[in-house]
Design a protein that fits this description.
The chain has 383 residues and is an alpha/beta fold. Helix content is 41%, strand content 14%.
Length: 383
């Protein structure tokens, strides 16, 4: 289906697309791929300070509407960041109609060149939970994001929670913000064959039954709550945690050691993206106890993989997981323990959660998101 209105040239800040394997990189790659699919007559220019990682660019191979654009002269060190902020707009094609900052930033000079702009804000966790960030990082993020929100013709927030934060911290009027949810990679929507499941289980030494958690193992993600809950279960359950290690990981492992749970905690770092659907589909339950998220794509990934989920209250996870998932206080391990026992002990409940989850995530299908993005572009361009 063609959702576009006429042929346009749209530019993107693509640094995350070429450098980030997860998170903001996945968001950018998903957005430009779905736009090329549902609005194929447009041209999409992806501006990035250098080619980045070959394997990330290759994820967009074979899409003729996409073109990677680099600085006219090779840049090094801090000059790459300066180019993104101050030099990029000078290199835009003359017929560029719109610039979309995919990760909270916009280059200067867009208005001077007659280019309209949209910026996506994923979260303002650095303001909501400042203790998790270094002061200099908070200062830089605040400066960049506030400036982008004020200069953009329109803002995309990836959840109602993020929209509220943009209004609260930056004083942006509600009518300037569109909430457009994220989707997940198509690979999570298809059953993994038994041979691949067995191969992934063998390579990662997975137990037959486990509770899965996905995300960087940092304090905000709150993995310790899951271990505290497992410690209260009548019998221990295996926990598979997939994500980047941080110093907080040691705190989780020390708790596991103190409570005899070391054999039940499996921390997997550097897992291939290709293995993730199998890791989800092999799990009995997905638990995402994060204290705060901009959206919470792992909840969508789990629902698409047919895994019942438990999330934490306090941010936006109810928006991602919908009414089919269960939610607990991020500081209440007893409540989480009760919910885990409830889900794992009731097959009818599990089936209902899976069915409700699949129904909920239909709203995050690519065609829906592409239509909403194009609607925002129309508002900006007055088409």
């Amino acid at each position: 289906m063609n959702l576009d209105f006429r042929s346009l040239r749209i530019a993107f800040d693509a640094k995350r697309i070429t450098h980030n394997a997860t998170g903001l990189g996945n968001y950018g790659r998903t957005i430009v791929a779905m736009l090329a699919r549902f609005a194929p007559q447009n041209r999409y220019d992806l501006y990035t300070p250098d080619p980045g990682r070959d394997e990330l660019r290759r994820r967009l191979d074979g899409i003729p509407q996409l073109t990677f654009r680099y600085p006219r002269k090779p840049l090094h060190g801090p000059f790459k960041a300066l180019w993104r902020s101050f030099g990029l707009s000078r290199e835009l094609a003359p017929d560029t109609a719109l610039f979309h900052g995919l990760s909270g930033e916009l280059p200067s000079g867009l208005r001077k060149r007659g280019v309209r702009s949209v910026v996506t804000i994923h979260d303002l966790i650095f303001l909501r939970f400042p203790a998790y960030y270094k002061p200099v990082d908070r200062w830089i993020y605040t400066l960049k994001f506030r400036s982008a929100c004020r200069r953009a013709d329109r803002i995309i927030a990836i959840s109602e929670a993020t929209k509220r934060d943009v209004m609260h911290f930056f004083g942006i009027p509600e009518q300037k913000i569109d909430v457009i949810y994220q989707g997940c990679d198509e690979r999570f929507k298809h059953p993994v064959d038994a041979a691949l499941l067995d191969d992934v289980r063998r390579r990662h030494a997975l137990p037959d039954h486990y509770i899965l958690s996905v995300g960087s193992i940092e304090e905000r993600k709150n993995l310790l709550l899951l271990l505290q809950a497992v410690a209260q279960l009548p019998a221990p359950r295996h926990v598979v945690a997939v994500g980047k290690r941080t110093p907080y990981t040691q705190q989780v492992e020390e708790f596991a050691a103190a409570h005899g749970l070391t054999p039940y905690l499996h921390v997997l770092e550097g897992v291939s993206f290709d293995d993730l659907p199998a890791l989800y589909q092999g799990a009995d339950l997905f638990v995402y106890p994060s204290r705060y998220e901009g959206f919470g794509i792992p909840m969508i990934e789990a629902a698409n993989c047919g895994v019942p989920s438990i999330g934490a209250t306090g941010s936006c996870l109810e928006e991602a997981g919908g009414p089919g998932a269960l939610y607990v206080d991020p500081d209440d391990p007893q409540e989480l323990a009760r919910r885990i026992e409830e889900v794992l002990g009731d097959e009818a409940l599990r089936r209902r959660m899976v069915a409700d989850g699949r129904a909920w995530v239909a709203r995050f299908e690519p065609e829906v998101i592409a239509s909403e993005l194009l609607s925002t572009y129309r508002k900006v361009l007055a088409l």
